[in-house]
Write a structure and sequence with these properties.
The protein is mainly alpha-helical. It has a domain of 165 residues. The chain starts with 6 loop residues before the first helix and ends with a helix.
Amino acid sequence: MTTNKSPDQRSSKSLFWAKVLSWAVVIIAIIATTQALPLKELAGDLLVAISVLGWWGYLAYFLLYILASVCFIPGSILTLGAGFLFGVVKGSLLVSVSSTAGAVAAFWVARHVARARIAEWIAKNPRFAAVDGAIAREGWKIVFMVRLSPLFPFIFLNYALGLTRISLRDYALASWLGMLPATLMYVYLGSLAQELSQLGIKNGARTPSEWFFYVAGLLATAAVTLYVTRLAKTALAEKI
């Protein structure tokens, strides 16, 4: 049995997708702009400036990482730079705190800018509401697994997860734990560099730690895909 949607329903759905398309265009434009800019050179210059600030350098680095996270700027060069400037222990602690704060900041922006509009549309679709609710209940597991995966970019996850109903507490804790392995590896690699200009330049074969991280990440990718699929099927079955 089929039901015809009213003009208001069709108009509402069209408006929703128009907004989604508009946001997609904005995000693509931001990404294209960041890719066109000499970000590696700029990050290198900023790291040089931070290196002479003494204890103030920790605060400057913290604020820079948050800004980069919100502005869709990849933080890998900053993570490597922390290893070079502060060493493995201090660098790992600083990146762990900074990357989590940056992830929370981007999450907050997405939650307060777009979540209300997404929620309005989800409320009109029981199936999507069921899946959204399931993610809210089990979201910390999903966040933890996607943070382990190298296939899910850090900057995109921050905003995408802000559109779900997962709590800020679960998001922040799962993000912090899930990002730790990559943080330790990249900070360690940065500590091996002889100068800042070497950061991000790959020489030779991958180290055993890199291979371990990538294999573990791929396994996490497969796990989260299967888990989310099962979660969605269960939620929909309960709703039907």
